[in-house]
Structures are given as structure tokens and as C-alpha cells.
Amino acid sequence: MRKFWHKSTQHLIPVFRRRLSGVDALPQLAVLGLLSGLFTGGVILIFRLAIEWPLEYFLPGDGSESFEELHILTRAILPLAGAIGLGLLMHNLATHDRKVGIVHVMERLNYHQGYISMRSALVQFVTGVSTVVTGQSAGREGPAVHLGAAVSSLMGQWMRLPNNSIRTLVACGCAAAISASFNTPISGVIFAMEVVMMEYTIAGFTPIILASVTAAVVSQAMYGSEVAFTVPPLTMNSLLEIPWIIAIAIIIGVAAAAFIQLVDTTGRHHHRPVLLRLTIAGLLMVPFAIVVPEVMGIGYDTVQFTLDNELPFWLLLGAGVAKLVITSVTLGLGMPSGVIGPTLFMGATLGGAMGLIGAQIFPDTASSVGFYAMLGMGAMMGAVLQAPLAALMALMELTRNPNIILPGMLVITTASLVTSEAFGKKSLFLTILKSQGLSYQNSPVIQALRRVSVGAIMDRNILRTERFLSREEAGKILKSEPKWLVVEGSNGPTGLLPAVDLARYLEDTKPSADGEQEDEEEAPKQIDLMDIPANRRDIAPVQYQATLEEALNEFEHTSVEALYVQRHVAPMIQRVYGVILKSDIESYYQYRRS
């Protein structure tokens, strides 16, 4: 029985991988989505508990966010000490190991096909917990997205899946992380596709949805079915509020542009020592922690108080502006903190402050402060991330109220337009990537090539052969009717030869019936495949997991005419599975377009 199971597994796994090479592997992707959601949900639970347990023990009062109740001296020392500790930790890491957060996930997707290391995940876990526990102005969702993406990527790497499916797994992990953090499965799906992947595909929706739902179930098993905030019933009292909603959207759009600009400006000092930068960030945090302690930590308690209309105008305005300034500056200086939570905080407090002004100007028609706070949250998230659909879905799932759709669409799109068109700002994540000298390619051609592995279109009708053959050996090779001959050299395959050219050569040099050569030359005893007349092609290797985008880049980098597809099957042993020509990639893309 065990032997039968082993043989079945050996047969099924290669078939599973092969199906994943193409774009039509929906059942296989669905299974991966479920596994991604399960593992990501578990990791996010551990991450949240690692933050909440020490804070519940350390902070006075109830809950894990009452930094305001700490003694003033403790509030001053805690973030500074935390920043220095983080600086020392990151100082001892290599530069590439310091990169964390959603920006790092996007970089790995664009430049490394979604491969994320275990070391990166561990660094993100430690720094993500440390920033919140030590009272930095930070969020937990950005680190959670990194962790979800890393867990799913590592699962794909362990299973040795093609790179196109690892990219899908990373999107599944991102969606599952947002879903488990907020208990908002729909916005998790849209966030992964709109913010991280920056593409929508029919094949991608199913596994990402399954991952998001599975992670939400895991989260609900621990925290119940309630969303991140308790939102009172919210409605727009009158259509006469629309001009005021537009005014709020404009103000939020300006604030979002200012936030992105501050991050970009302070981020230009990234060449300075990381210990110096984080120490400065900790020093800057001290006066904010003393005067406006609401900015410490995640700040969801302040958001909840705002929704319940329990905070005065000047506290809302001061906390919103302070959160904007200190978060953007510390983030730009390199503090490894998340940004989604702070955007919700800024949007809620600034929106709530505008709601109080509206109540004074239009006392008979103005809606509740919580209504404007929710609109502010959606508008700030949409404008900073340039992800209006993800922000709208988050708004709907957090409120569970369809009445928020119309004003939500208006405020989010207006704020996003103000930020992008009036101030020319791109998404915060794209802005940070650009400041690091990186870009994010998301053209339709690149997206199409990333979704397919070389294994899906390679020609498997090949035969590896030595360069020098006798006529008898050549005849035996041709009996198996290969299309291509991969000619071996001293350091691996060195050329690609159409088998028909070898057959033609054998025919041309075949001895005649009377024993004489047809071309009146002596028949060579040994055939040199790199010397006979043939349409040979220079070749270079490409890994079996590679996408068509990687193959195309390899063609451009090496200037070869063909690639042989290989995979490590044992130490120092490579197995060649097929060959691919540049024309094969072009033909495939044209076929998919038609």
C-alpha cells in the first residue's frame, strides 16, 4: 500500500506542476488558494497575538492600545528605545535583508517572480511586532501582507511550482492577510489585485477568493465574526450634503498628496546609515508621543472613539495632522512600519473633524460624525494607495451598510483624482519603488507573459546527444523521430539542431549500391553535429519554473536563438525537458490575443 501511494504521488506531482504551467489550471490553482488561505490565516493569527499579548500585559487599562494612559516619561522613552533597538537590529542585517512591507512584495513580484525568502519573513515578523509594541506610529496590515505573501511564496517554492503559479500564490497570500486582519474577504481580494498585482484576471479571481475566504474563516474561529470596528448605523440624511462631501474629498485628497510627498522627501536620505535614520525617527516621535499620544501604535481605539463621536474637534484635527506628519517622516526615514492602519486613522480623524464642522454649519441636514469619519477612512485609503475599488469594498464590508455606497463612491473617486491629477501623485508604494530606483511593469503584454510558464509552450520532442556520432548511432537517434537534437558540449548543451537536417545529411552522404559515395567523397566515419550543414541555433538555459517574461528577458540578455528548459533533479544534475524559441513566445501571445 505504501509503495502504491509513493508511486501515485510521484506520478501526480509532475502532472500537477505541468498543468500549472499554463493559464487554464483552475482546479489546481483553487487547491493552492485554499492552502494559502489556511497557512496565511494561521500565521496572521500568531502575528496578531504576538502584538496583543505583550501590550495587554504592559499597558494600563483594558485592551492593547491604551498608550495614552502611560506615564508621560514612559511615553517618551518607549518609542525612542524601540527605534534604537530596531536600528541596531537592521544595522546588523545586509541591505537586501532590511527590505520589508508591501513595497518589498511588489519588488519581488516584478523582479524576482514572487520569490520571498524565509529570512525576509522572519525579519518582517520581528520588526512588525516591534514597531507596534514600542509605540511607533505604525500599522499591522502592511507587515501582515508581507507575511502572507512570504508564507504562500515559500509554499510554492517548497512544492517547486512554476513561477507563474508562485505569482498567483503571492496574490493569494496578500488577499488572505487583509481578510484575516480586518475580517473583510472581498476587500482582501480587490486589494491583492488592484494594489499589489495591479491586474485583474479571470483565472486569478478563483484562487484569490478561496484564499481570502479561508483566511477569514480562520480569523473568525479566533476573534469571532465582527469586523475590525464597531460601526453604528450610517446613512446620508440629505442630498444637500453632497457639496460638503465633495469638499471633504478635496481636503482628504490634499492631505493624501502631502503624505505621499513627505514620505518621498524624507526617503531621499535612504543612503545614510540605517541606525542614524531610525534614531532620528525615534527622537522625532518623542514630542508627538508626549503631546498627542493617540498617534502611538495602531490607534484603532481612537478610530472607534471617532466613529462613536466621543472626541472633540481639536483633538480629532490635531491627532489627524500629527499622525500624517510623524508617520510619513518616520516611514521615509526607514521605520519598518505598515501604512494601511495609519491611513485609516488619518482619514477617520480628519473626516470626523470635518463632520463636526458640517454639524455646526448645517445642523438640520448634516449626517453623524461617524458617517463622515467612515467616508474619510475610505477616501484617505483610496487616495494614498490609488486603489479606489479596494477602498470602496473595505468601506462596504466595514460598515455592512449599502447606504454608504453612493457617498463612498463619490468621496473616494474625488479624493483619488485630486491626489493623482491635481498633484500628480502615484500610489505611495509606486512612489517608494521609484525613489529606490525601481519600477513596476504592468503593461498588458508583460502581464500576459507572466501568467504562463515556459513549460506550457516548450517543445518536448527533443533528444540530447553527444556532438560526435557514428552513422549507426545517428541512425538509431533518428528512429525515435525527435524534432530537435540538443548537442552536448564540455559544459552542458552547446547547440540546437533540427533532426531533419541530420537525416538530410545522412541521406546525402549515403553510400551507393555499388559501395561508392554518391558525392564521390569518402564517407566520414564520425559525424560532427556542429560541423555538418544544418540550421543550428545557439542555446542558453532557462529554468523549468520560469515564466515567458523571464524567457523573453533571457533571449534579450544572451542574444541566443533558443533556450533549453532544465530543472535540478539531483545535486549537480540537470534534466532538460524541452526547448523554446523566441518565435514560440511571439506566436503564443498572438494566439491568445486572437
TrEMBL record:
One MF annotation (Gene Ontology) recorded for this entry: chloride channel activity
SUPFAM superfamilies referenced in this protein's UniProt entry, alphabetically: Clc chloride channel (SSF81340)
Keywords: Chloride, Chloride channel, Ion channel, Ion transport, Membrane, Transmembrane, Transmembrane helix, Transport
InterPro entries: Cl-channel_core, ClC, ClC-type_chloride_channel
Pfam families associated with the record: Voltage_CLC
Gene3D superfamilies: Clc chloride channel (1.10.3080.10)
A GO cellular-component term linked to this record: chloride channel complex
Transmembrane segments: 26-50, 70-89, 200-222, 242-262, 274-293, 313-332, 344-363, 369-392, 404-424
Membrane topology: Multi-pass membrane protein
Domain of life of the organism encoding this protein: Bacteria
Compartment annotation: Membrane
Name of the protein described by the UniProt record: Chloride channel protein
Organism: Marinobacter vulgaris
